Amino acid sequence: MRCISSLCLFLLLAPPTASAAQSARGGGGDWGLRLRVVISGTSAESEPADYKIYSGVSLEGAVSRKLGDVTAIELAVRTESREVEGPRTPGTEHRLGAFEMLPIDLTLQWRPRGRSDASLQPYVGLGLNVTTTWEASGLLDSTHPPVTLGPAVQLGVTHALSPQAVLNVDARWHTMSVDFVNFAETEPRVTLDPLSLGLGVGISF
User: Fold this and answer.
1) Is 127 part of any domain?
2) Does the N-terminal peptide bond of residue 194 adopt cis geometry, omega within 30 degrees of 0?
């Protein structure tokens, strides 16, 4: 975690290249802010069977910074509430409660049309996802899933609404499993669908 924070701080504070500065003077600055509505995938499988974690819908904030004409770095953070269910057995409550999760994505982006003034600007990103579960409710109250860390892949496009404002469509993929630590003698593990989809707006300055 300390290494990731140091890398993020270095890349965000590093001086822009000359080409990035020239691009900024042409309309749109080195920095960008995004606000997206994101829906994340539901659970794919579990061990033991029949444990489910449902999709989370949340607002996400992201800040990006140009590193050159065709490269940028983005840090995205959101909180999401995910309902959890267990096996449906007689005499047992299958609605277990909810996990409150904090996914953080740090990606290095390649923007192949960054040197042009085209209104549509696609991008591809590669980086890391860190997700922590900061609260659990209901029957999961004593459960403390560990922090997960894994690779993240990003694909998206922005459409210019004005020299400073954009419409943004974003898709991300990252692997993630949730361990129900301290929940039962046999601790369940749930693998989540790795796809998250986002739609939002942004500004550059």
Assistant:
1) yes
2) no
